[in-house]
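Translate structure to sequence.
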C-alpha cells in the first residue's frame, strides 16, 4: 500500500491539477470578492472626494469633514481623490487601450500636481498652483485649497502606484507602496483618537484631515485588493493554512489593537486611571489578547489539520480509484514531465509497446527514442508543446521492438502551469487492425468495383430516397449523363416513363417493407437525357444490412421489337392455321354430304349402313377441326364441348327415340388434334353401336360418357356405357370381324391405351388413353 501511495503521490507531484474542486471554487470566488472590494472602495473614494469638493463649493463644512475643531479635506486633495478613485475603478474593469490611456493621464496629473505641491513646501516658492482656483472661486485662500504636506506625499505615491498598476509593473512594489501610505494615513487618523501635540515636529508632519485619512486608507486597501492573486496579497487569499489564518487574524488583530488603544486613551482622558496605569493596562490587555489569539489560532489549526487529513484520505482513495481505472483500460496512457521525460506508463501502454513500464521510465521522449519507434509522434508532441492545446494524431506508423510496423491514434494533452508547458498526458489506441481492415476493405471495394464495372449491364445503386448513389460506366449509355453527373445528384425517377413511374415507386417501397413480395425483375420504359425511349429489363435486390438496392438494367428494345415481329408473324400463322382447319372441316363436310348423297341411291341396306357409319366417322373428324378454328388456342380442343357436340349430332343422325338419354361427365380436359381425333372416332364407334343395338327391345335407356384424368400424369380414363340389352356373350370384342370394333382397337393402341369390357348391367367400355405429346412443329 505504501508503495502504491508513493507512486500516486509521485504522479500527482508532476501534474499541476486542482484536485479539490470545492477548494478551487472557493479560491476563485474569494478572488472575485477581493476584486469587488477594490471596486467598491474605488466608488467610496470617488463619493467622499465629491462630497469634500461640494463642501467647498457649497460652503458646507460637514461635507468636507470639518466638525469638532477637526480640519477638513482641502479642495485640491478632494479633486485628486476623485481622479484616483476613477482610475482605481477603471483598473477593476475590463481594460482596453482607451481606458488604459485615460488611467495613465489621470495618474500622471495626480503625480505631477502632488510633486509640484511638495516642491512648493520644500522650496517655499509659489508656483501659482492655487491661483487656478482663486480665479474661479475668489473667496478661497491658498490654505483652503492647497493640500497638506503628508497628503501631498501620499497623493504622489498614489499617482505612481496607479501608473505602475496600469502597466502591471512590479506588483510586489505596488503592494509595498500601498501598505506604506495606508499605514501613514492610519497614523494621521490615529492622532485624532490618541491625541497629538503641536510642540513636536513629527506631530505636525503627520497632521492630516480625518476625512482625508479615511479616504487614503480606503484607497490603500483598494489598491491592495486590485491584484488578489499576486505577491503579498496572494499569501492572504491563498487556499492554505497561512492564507486561512491571515484572513482571520489580520482584521481581528488590527481592529482589536486599534480599539483597545482608543479605549485606554479614552479612560485616561476621563481620569479613570493614571498615565502609568494606562500603560500597564495596555500591556496586560495586549498580552491577554495575544493569548486568546494564540489559543484560537491553535484550535483553528487543529480543525484545519483534521480536515486536511480527511481530504488526504479521500484524495488517496480517489487517486487509487483513478489509478485502477487507468491501469484497467485497454488504451495506452503515458505521461511526461516538463523536461519531456517519461515517468508513467500504464499496463495498456506496456502491452501496446511490448515493453515493461520500468524499462521506459526516465527516457526522454524526444531524444532517447529512435525515429522508427515513435514514428511521427514527435511532430505532434512538439506541436502540442508549442501551442499548449490538445493535439490529435490518427493512425501514425510506428515500429515495435520486434520490428513490426504498427499504427496508433490518440491525443497529446499538454499540462499547463502558469502559462508554461509542464508535461503532457498522452493516450494511445492500437489501430493496426483497423488499418488492416481498411486496407482489406479498400481491396475488396476495388475488387467489387471492378465487378460492378464489368457486368456488361448498366448497374446502379439507389438509396431509399430514390437518389442514385453509385453508377458504372455502362449506365452512361443508358441515361446519357456522365457518372459524375449521376452519383448522389440525380434520382432514378427522372428517367422512368410517366406511365410506369407509380408502379416502379410501389415496387421500390414494397422492396424495403416486405422484400419477398416485391418482384426482383420487371420491364419498364426508360427516357434518357435526349428523351429517347428504351425498353428495359430491370433486375433488383436489396444490399444486406442496408436500405440500398443494387439494380441492373438490360436494354431489351431490340428484343421487344423482335417479339412484336414474331407475334405479328404468329398471328398471321394462326389466321392461316384457322383457315386450314376451316377448309379441312369444309372438305370433310363435303365428303360427308357426298356419302349421304351416295347413300340415298343405295337400295342395299347393308351397304347404306356402311356408308352411314363412314359418314359419322368423317363428321367426328370434321368436328375436331371445327372446334380448333373456333377456339382461341389453335393447339388444343376443349374435350367437353367436343364430346357434347359430337354426341348431339349422332343422336340427331340416328333418330334416337325420346326415351333414350345422354349423360356426360367430362372434366376440364384439353387435347390436341393428335389425341382428340382418335378419341372422337372411338366415341363415334361405341356410341353408334349403342344407338343401333342397345335399345332395340327397350323403349328407354341411358348412354353415359365420362372422361377424367387418372392419378398418373397424361393418363385419362374414358368410360362409354349403356344400360341396354348388353354386349353378346359369344362375341370377343377384341377379335370381332366388325370394322367398327377393329377400328376402336386400332385407335386405342394408337393412343398407347388399354380397353376393357364390363357386361354387368348393360355394356361398359373402360378405356385408358394417354395424352399424346408430339414435338412442336413450329
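Result:
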Amino acid at each position: 500500500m505504501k508503495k502504491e501511495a508513493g507512486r500516486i503521490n509521485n504522479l500527482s507531484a508532476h501534474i499541476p491539477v486542482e484536485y479539490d474542486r470545492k477548494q478551487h471554487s472557493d479560491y476563485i470566488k474569494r478572488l472575485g470578492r477581493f476584486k469587488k472590494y477594490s471596486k467598491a472602495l474605488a466608488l467610496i473614494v470617488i463619493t467622499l472626494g465629491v462630497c469634500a469638493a461640494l463642501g467647498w463649493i457649497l460652503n458646507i463644512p460637514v461635507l468636507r469633514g470639518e466638525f469638532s475643531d477637526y480640519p477638513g479635506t482641502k479642495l485640491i486633495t478632494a479633486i485628486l481623490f476623485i481622479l484616483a478613485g476613477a482610475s482605481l475603478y477603471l483598473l477593476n474593469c475590463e481594460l482596453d487601450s482607451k481606458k488604459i490611456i485615460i488611467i495613465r493621464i489621470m495618474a500622471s496629473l495626480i503625480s505631477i500636481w502632488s510633486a509640484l505641491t511638495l516642491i512648493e513646501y520644500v522650496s517655499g516658492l509659489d508656483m501659482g498652483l492655487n491661483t487656478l482656483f482663486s480665479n474661479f472661486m475668489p473667496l478661497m485662500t491658498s490654505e483652503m485649497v492647497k493640500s497638506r504636506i503628508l497628503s501631498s506625499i501620499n497623493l504622489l505615491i498614489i499617482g505612481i502606484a496607479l501608473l505602475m498598476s496600469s502597466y502591471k509593473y512590479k506588483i510586489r512594489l505596488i503592494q509595498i507602496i500601498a501598505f506604506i501610505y495606508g499605514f501613514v494615513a492610519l497614523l494621521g487618523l490615529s492622532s485624532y483618537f490618541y491625541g497629538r501635540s503641536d510642540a513636536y515636529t513629527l506631530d505636525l508632519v503627520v497632521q492630516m484631515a480625518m476625512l482625508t485619512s479615511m479616504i487614503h486608507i480606503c484607497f490603500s486597501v483598494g489598491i491592495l485588493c486590485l491584484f488578489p492573486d499576486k505577491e503579498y496579497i496572494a499569501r492572504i487569499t491563498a487556499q492554505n493554512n497561512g492564507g486561512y489564518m491571515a484572513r482571520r487574524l489580520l482584521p481581528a488583530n488590527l481592529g482589536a489593537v486599534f480599539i483597545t488603544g482608543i479605549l485606554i486613551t479614552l479612560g485616561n482622558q476621563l481620569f479613570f486611571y493614571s498615565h502609568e496605569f494606562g500603560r500597564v493596562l495596555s500591556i496586560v490587555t495586549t498580552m491577554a489578547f495575544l493569548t486568546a489569539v494564540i489559543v484560537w489560532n491553535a484550535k483553528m489549526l487543529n480543525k484545519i489539520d483534521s480536515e486536511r487529513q480527511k481530504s488526504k484520505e479521500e484524495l488517496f482513495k480517489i487517486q487509487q480509484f483513478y489509478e485502477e481505472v487507468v491501469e484497467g483500460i485497454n488504451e495506452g496512457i503515458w505521461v511526461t514531465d516538463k523536461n519531456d521525460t517519461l515517468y508513467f506508463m500504464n499496463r495498456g501502454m506496456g502491452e501496446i509497446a511490448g515493453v515493461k513500464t520500468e524499462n521506459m521510465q526516465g527516457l526522454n521522449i524526444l531524444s532517447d527514442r529512435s525515429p522508427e519507434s515513435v514514428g511521427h509522434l514527435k511532430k505532434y508532441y512538439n506541436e502540442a508543446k508549442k501551442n499548449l492545446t490538445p493535439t490529435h494524431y490518427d493512425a501514425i506508423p510506428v515500429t515495435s521492438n520486434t520490428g513490426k510496423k504498427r499504427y496508433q491514434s490518440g491525443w497529446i494533452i499538454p499540462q499547463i502551469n502558469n502559462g508554461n508547458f509542464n508535461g503532457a498526458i498522452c493516450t494511445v489506441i492500437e489501430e493496426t487492425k483497423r488499418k488492416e481492415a481498411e486496407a482489406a476493405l479498400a481491396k475488396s471495394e476495388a475488387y467489387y468495383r471492378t465487378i460492378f464495372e464489368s457486368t456488361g449491364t448498366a448497374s446502379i445503386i439507389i438509396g431509399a430516397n430514390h437518389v442514385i448513389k453509385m453508377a458504372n460506366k455502362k449506365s452512361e449509355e443508358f441515361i446519357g449523363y456522365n457518372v459524375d453527373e449521376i452519383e448522389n445528384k440525380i434520382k432514378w425517377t427522372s428517367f422512368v416513363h410517366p406511365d410506369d413511374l407509380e408502379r416502379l415507386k410501389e415496387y421500390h417501397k414494397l422492396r424495403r417493407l416486405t422484400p419477398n413480395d416485391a418482384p426482383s425483375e420487371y420491364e419498364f420504359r426508360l427516357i434518357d437525357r435526349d428523351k429517347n425511349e428504351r425498353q428495359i429489363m430491370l433486375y433488383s435486390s436489396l444490399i444486406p444490412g442496408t436500405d440500398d438496392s443494387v439494380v441492373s438494367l438490360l436494354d431489351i428494345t431490340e428484343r421487344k421489337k423482335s417479339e412484336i415481329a414474331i407475334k405479328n408473324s404468329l398471328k398471321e400463322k394462326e389466321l392461316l392455321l384457322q383457315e386450314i382447319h376451316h377448309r379441312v372441316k369444309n372438305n370433310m363436310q363435303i365428303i360427308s354430304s357426298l356419302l349421304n348423297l351416295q347413300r340415298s341411291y343405295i337400295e342395299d341396306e347393308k351397304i347404306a349402313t356402311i356408308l352411314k357409319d363412314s359418314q359419322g366417322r368423317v363428321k367426328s373428324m370434321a368436328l375436331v377441326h371445327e372446334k380448333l378454328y373456333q377456339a382461341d388456342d389453335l393447339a388444343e380442343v376443349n374435350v367437353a364441348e367436343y364430346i357434347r357436340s359430337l354426341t348431339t349430332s349422332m343422336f340427331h343422325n340416328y333418330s334416337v327415340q325420346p326415351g333414350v338419354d345422354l349423360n356426360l361427365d367430362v372434366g376440364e380436359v384439353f387435347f390436341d388434334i393428335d389425341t382428340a381425333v382418335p378419341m372422337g372416332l372411338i366415341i363415334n364407334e361405341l356410341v353408334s353401336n349403342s344407338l343401333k343395338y342397345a335399345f332395340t327391345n327397350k323403349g328407354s335407356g341411358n348412354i353415359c360418357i365420362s372422361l377424367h384424368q387418372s392419378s398418373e400424369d397424361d393418363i385419362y380414363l374414358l368410360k362409354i356405357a349403356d344400360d341396354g340389352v348388353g354386349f353378346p356373350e359369344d362375341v370377343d370384342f377384341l377379335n370381332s370381324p366388325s370394322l367398327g370394333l377393329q377400328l376402336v382397337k386400332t385407335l386405342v393402341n394408337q393412343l398407347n391405351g388399354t380397353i376393357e369390357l364390363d357386361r354387368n348391367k348393360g355394356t361398359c367400355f373402360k378405356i385408358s388413353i394417354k395424352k399424346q405429346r408430339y414435338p412442336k412443329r413450329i
